[in-house]
Amino acid sequence: MKKILLLSDTHSHIDAQIIKYIKQADEVWHAGDIGVIEVADTIKKLKPLRAVYGNIDDKTVRAEYPLDQKFEVEKVSVWMTHIGGYPNKYNFRIKEEIQINPPKIFISGHSHILKVQFDQKLNLLHMNPGAAGKHGFHKVRTMLRFEIDKEEIKNLEVIELETRS
After folding, report:
1. Are 62 and 38 in contact (CB under 8 A)?
2. How far apart, in whole angstroms, are the C-alpha atoms of residue 10 and residue 18?
3. Contact 43, 10 (CB under 8 A)
4. 8 A C-beta contact, residue 145 and residue 21
């Protein structure tokens, strides 16, 4: 069993609130717009990190992390990218491939809108953790936490860090 912390759109920000949850996870997944490489380095010092770069990430972040991460944890296939869309409105770049070979979990960031939605057509769970950083239009900083046990995804929690004024 793996305890996963999923975050996105930190936009160069990491603080004690985020670190508290990182320490509780087995792995951290970052769905892009890391901001500066120091954010990823801070996470990697604490826990294993799987990440993708986002549209605001510079060449240093892009050199370290790919546009897409496709991997398997326990018996669950995962596809993580920053700009991926959501069920019935997937990004044109991934639309054909996701229909041909859908993962069990599809993760995207970018929108700063937390959304977890089951795609009945493709039989996959779409997850967007919202935004954990302080830059952007979102009112509440959010992340997701869940467990993967063999082929089961369970104990999904929304983490609200703070309401922004």
Report:
1. no
2. 10
3. no
4. yes
Could you list the pLDDT tens digit for every one of the 165 residues in the chain?
A: 999 999 999 999 999 999 999 999 999 999 999 999 999 999 999 999 999 999 999 999 999 999 999 999 999 999 999 999 999 999 999 999 999 999 999 999 999 999 999 999 999 999 999 999 998 888 999 999 999 999 999 999 999 997 765
Cβ pair 82, 88 in contact under 8 A: no
Per the structure, the count of domains in the chain is: 1
Checking 69-75 for CB contacts under 8 A at 24+ apart, the result is: 70/103, 73/2, 73/4, 73/27, 73/148, 74/1, 74/2, 74/148, 74/149, 74/150, 74/151, 75/150, 75/151
Q: What does pTM read for this prediction?
A: 0.96
Give the range of the structural domain holding residue 62, as residue numbers without chain letter: 2-163
Q: What's the CATH number where 74 sits?
A: 3.60.21.10
| Number of residues in the chain | 165
Structure tokens given for 25: 């996870």
